[in-house]
Specification:
alpha/beta; Nucleotidyltransferase, domain 5; five-stranded mixed beta sheet; 37% helix
Length: 306
């Protein structure tokens, strides 16, 4: 008999949710906005309501557990948020696992969202069957997760994989290789060099680049070069089987994947380092939910342990 799990991915902008089988098959899914003000957040309240609604509407499924992926630094033993940035006020100290287990009498496990995205790709995405993998997520910032010999590396303070804070010539890599940087740099250059003002979306930037827009092509190439430096450093340090690049930029796989691979490999000091595969993620928004499930199953010894 199949077992069913509620999976929830908590982000600063939205909360994704779904019901999955133990094999990672999704039965239902949806998204709600994250309710956050400058002084308060309602995340735990809204997550409880989501779970309650799912249990009431889909009672046909016997739910075996609650799997949480969350923004912030997560103490995975306690299932508690031990640090959250200013975008989610008053989230630090939230005891997610304790609160949900008490409310619903179901087992719960919690892991960081970037780690969950990596686990999702490792289990069901481009990292499948690999023994070592580094996942880099590129969005408004840059995050990372590290899996070595089949085990997720959390670090002594649960902060392993903070790739965005790697230093390149005095700059954090997330300040010179994120989608936020790409958009802001192009808006600035369009205004200064072409007199064009106004906001521009990431999608429009790549559309213009494909049409040969000089500024867009040059700034994207700059982002790729900067990102490639961090990828090479990771390969020199960890020599993983695969580096997976996730986040919003995966929508531009055809434009980016081969360019990134070329920038990385062309600047390696030896062929021996070129054995690491470099791929863009394929699970998209589902990666975090899948990773939360995988984390739960592994913690409960229901899958090969990580």
């Amino acid at each position: 008999m199949l077992m069913y799990y509620i999976c929830i991915d908590i982000g600063g902008i939205s909360i994704k949710y779904g019901v999955f089988t133990e094999n990672g098959d999704m039965l239902i899914n949806g998204t709600v906005s994250t309710r956050v003000t400058s002084r308060e957040n309602y995340i735990l309240t809204d997550v409880k309501k989501l779970i309650k609604d799912i249990l009431e509407q889909y009672g046909v499924y016997k739910i075996e557990g609650i799997c949480i992926s969350s923004a912030g630094v997560v103490d995975t033993e306690k299932g508690e948020i031990i640090y959250a940035g200013p975008t989610i006020p008053k989230y630090t100290g939230t005891k997610i696992k304790e609160e949900l287990e008490k409310e619903f009498n179901l087992p719960c496990e919690v892991e960081n969202d970037v780690n969950c995205a990596g686990l999702g790709e490792y289990w069901k995405g481009v990292g499948i069957n690999s023994k070592s993998m580094v996942c880099i997520t590129v969005g408004t910032g840059i995050g990372g997760s590290i899996i070595l010999d089949g085990k997720l590396l959390n670090g002594i303070g649960y902060t392993a994989g903070e790739i965005g804070y790697m230093d390149i010539n005095g700059n954090y890599i997330q300040n010179i290789a994120s989608s936020k940087y790409l958009i802001e740099k192009i808006q600035k250059e369009k205004k200064e060099k072409e007199g064009i003002e106004g906001k521009i979306s990431g999608l429009h930037i790549f559309e213009l680049a494909k049409q040969g827009d000089k500024i867009c092509v040059e700034v994207i190439d700059e982002l790729i070069r900067n990102l490639s430096i961090s990828i090479r450093n990771i390969i020199y340090l960890l020599n993983p089987e695969i580096v997976v690049i996730g986040g919003g930029i995966t929508a531009q796989k055809e434009y980016l994947e081969e360019k990134i691979r070329q920038y990385v490999n062309d600047n390696m000091i030896s062929d021996i380092f070129r054995k690491t595969k470099i791929k863009l993620a394929k699970q998209g928004n589902q990666a975090g939910l899948l990773g939360a499930l995988y984390h739960f199953l592994s913690r409960r010894n229901k899958i090969n342990n990580i």
